[in-house]
């Protein structure tokens, strides 16, 4: 028996999320809606309630779904009865012409994400498995919900969502009280509560039906096309899906308002829904509502960053662009005695979750954590598929085994006495779990880093990464290089508190032995790899790149050779460049290039949209 749905119109607030979902219900060509925000903000409730409205067919993709469930496969009963392989449609085939809802879409296994992307691209579900070759139409609108604290979304899938809404909880006490009051009323007297809102639900369903009927009459002229292109260009959006999403959404908004023409307000509202997740660094000017001197709508982050955010803002940085450089040049680097910067708890922190995210690979690992998806070498984790066993068949995949054996029952004499299963039919589960990473921070503590409060920025960035590592149950180590040497300030440990204390006490001063810092960090990670064969290493180098000390030869060349040895050791890396732009030599970027590592300016950790940060640095990323 299906559980009664909470009425769509009874949800308090979340007007922007409601607007996006209603637009999709009117015009499926928008492509999809992604609701991103903290837990407990009615994301799933809203989407499921949309499926309760007349005229909206919604299917749900569970986070525990397997490839069989999604794509389809052999119909077991028919195979046993007739000995023939008959295709049984999966969720994608059944979703043709409907809305497909993926809760926690960011946690979907890679294989399911790849299948979704392929089907969204072609509108056709292709199945080549279990001796079956089948294609069927699968054109659907995708709705996803996610909590960014649990992980990021692949950029390819993110771009497939036509609209994006950053969802936050209600802040006003009265609104919060109303949320609780309605929810309690629904739980205690469900039927009476639904009856109370039935008239509003019927009116909304009627409005949707009228809007769908009116939609073909809503024209898009040259002026609207030009405006959409201008808005997308101002956001520096990649590709041309942004313009199409704006125009499709503007048409839906006009139809919902009962109009056959698009006005300027429709275009600006559509842009606010279609551009946040596509806005890139270097966009021209602020978002549309700010240009018009209006307040940004509730739940829609002005800078379009994933998850909105209630964290402290950086008062010196505009929300819609990189930090502004001062007119005066910084004081020259000092090489006098060590200095100490006090980093107070509660200082401005950086958004770094995606920066340290590692991709899943094909290696089976033991261990625990929350950083990276990986194939599990134990029976822990979620089953994401099946395979033919190598050696003894443990952790049997019963369904896959039965499907493999079913077509041969006639020839084997199977029947009412039961199925005949032979060793070649056996399949075992492929499981996926998350493990923590081994992250070593190599921090430049030389005199040049002590100038212009640069070390304070570095400590803020590293502290943010340490907080993320604590949530993901990583092991962290700290290497500092200054003067004429590099030292392991902290060996790999799960005690992030200890790492924070060492970071707070880190002095600055002296020359920059960059090569020594890279060598020490590499050796620490290689020691860990020898201890734990299937570890997930990551080297985070934070420096201005101005190597000026070596034990022999040119300091820069020596640093590049050390970087090359990191790459040869197959240790993934990330470089945070702290050099000031107006005096930039680009040496940190050169080191990053040699290591095959992404390089970010320290300011980008605040200013750059989350979706554009690097998603993976694992040694066998796939």
TrEMBL record:
InterPro entries: ATPase_dyneun-rel_AAA (IPR011704), BchD/ChlD_VWA (IPR041702), ChlI/MoxR_AAA_lid (IPR041628), Mg-chelatase_DI-like (IPR052989), P-loop_NTPase (IPR027417), VWF_A (IPR002035), vWFA_dom_sf (IPR036465). Residues 365-382 have a biased composition (Basic residues). SUPFAM superfamilies: P-loop containing nucleoside triphosphate hydrolases, vWA-like. Residues 438-576 form the VWFA domain. GO terms for molecular function: ATP binding; ATP hydrolysis activity. CDD domains: AAA, vWA_Magnesium_chelatase. Residues 301-311 have a biased composition (Gly residues). Residues 273-346, 361-386 are annotated as: Disordered. Belongs to the Mg-chelatase subunits D/I family. This is VWA domain-containing protein.
């Amino acid at each position: 028996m299906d559980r009664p749905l909470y009425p769509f119109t009874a949800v308090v607030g979340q007007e922007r999320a409601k607007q996006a979902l209603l637009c999709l219900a009117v015009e499926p060509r928008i492509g999809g809606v992604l609701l991103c925000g903290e837990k407990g903000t009615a994301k799933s409730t809203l989407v499921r309630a949309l499926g309760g409205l007349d005229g909206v067919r919604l299917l749900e993709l569970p986070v525990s779904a397997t490839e069989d469930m999604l794509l389809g496969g052999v119909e077991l009963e028919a195979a046993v009865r007739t000995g023939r392989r008959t295709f049984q449609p999966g969720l994608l085939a059944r979703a043709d012409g409907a809305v497909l809802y993926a809760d926690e879409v960011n946690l979907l296994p890679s294989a399911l994400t790849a299948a979704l992307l392929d089907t969204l691209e072609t509108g056709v579900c292709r199945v080549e498995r279990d001796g079956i070759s089948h294609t069927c139409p699968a054109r659907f609108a995708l709705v996803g919900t996610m909590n960014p604290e649990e992980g990021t979304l692949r950029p390819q899938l993110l771009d497939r969502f036509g609209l994006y809404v950053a969802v936050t909880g209600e802040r006003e006490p009265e609104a919060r009280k109303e949320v609780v009051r309605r929810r309690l009323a629904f739980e205690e007297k469900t039927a009476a509560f639904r009856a109370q809102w039935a008239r509003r639900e019927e009116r909304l369903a009627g409005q949707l039906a009228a809007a769908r009927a009116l939609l073909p009459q809503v024209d898009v002229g040259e002026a609207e096309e030009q405006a959409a292109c201008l808005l997308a260009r101002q956001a520096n959006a990649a590709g041309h899906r942004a313009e199409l999403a704006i125009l499709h959404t503007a048409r839906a908004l006009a139809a919902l308002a009962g109009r056959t023409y698009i006005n300027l307000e429709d275009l600006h509202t559509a842009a606010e829904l279609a551009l946040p997740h596509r806005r890139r660094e270097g966009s021209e000017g602020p978002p549309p509502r700010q240009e018009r001197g209006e307040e940004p709508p509730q739940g829609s982050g002005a800078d379009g960053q994933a998850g909105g955010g209630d964290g402290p803002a950086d008062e010196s940085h505009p929300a819609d662009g990189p930090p502004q450089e001062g007119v005066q040049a910084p004081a020259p680097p000092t090489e006098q005695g060590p200095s100490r910067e006090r980093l107070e708890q509660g200082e401005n922190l950086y958004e770094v979750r995606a920066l340290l995210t590692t991709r899943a690979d094909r290696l089976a690992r033991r261990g625990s954590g929350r950083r990276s998806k990986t194939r599990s070498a134990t029976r822990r984790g979620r089953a994401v598929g099946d395979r033919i066993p190598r050696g003894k068949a443990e952790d049997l995949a019963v369904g896959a085994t039965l499907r493999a054996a079913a077509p041969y029952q006639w020839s084997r004499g199977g029947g009412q006495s039961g199925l005949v299963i032979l060793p070649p039919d056996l399949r075992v589960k492929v499981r996926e779990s998350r493990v923590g990473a081994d992250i070593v921070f190599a921090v430049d503590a030389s005199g040049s880093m002590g100038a212009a409060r640069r070390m304070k920025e570095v400590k803020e960035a590293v502290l943010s990464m340490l907080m993320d590592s604590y949530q993901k149950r990583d092991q962290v180590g700290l290497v500092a290089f200054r003067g004429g040497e590099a030292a392991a300030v902290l060996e790999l440990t799960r005690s992030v508190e200890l790492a924070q204390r060492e970071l707070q006490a880190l002095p600055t001063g002296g020359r920059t032995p960059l090569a020594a810092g890279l060598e020490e960090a590499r050796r620490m990670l290689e020691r860990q790899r020898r201890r734990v064969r299937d570890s997930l290493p990551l080297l985070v180098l934070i420096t201005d790149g101005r190597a000026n000390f070596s034990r022999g030869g040119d300091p820069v060349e020596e640093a590049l050779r050390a970087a090359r040895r990191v790459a040869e050791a197959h240790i993934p890396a990330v470089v945070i460049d702290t050099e000031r732009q107006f005096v930039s030599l680009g040496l940190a970027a050169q080191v990053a290039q040699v290591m095959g590592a992404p390089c970010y300016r320290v300011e980008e950790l605040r200013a750059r949209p989350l979706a554009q940060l690097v998603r993976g640095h694992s040694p066998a990323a796939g």
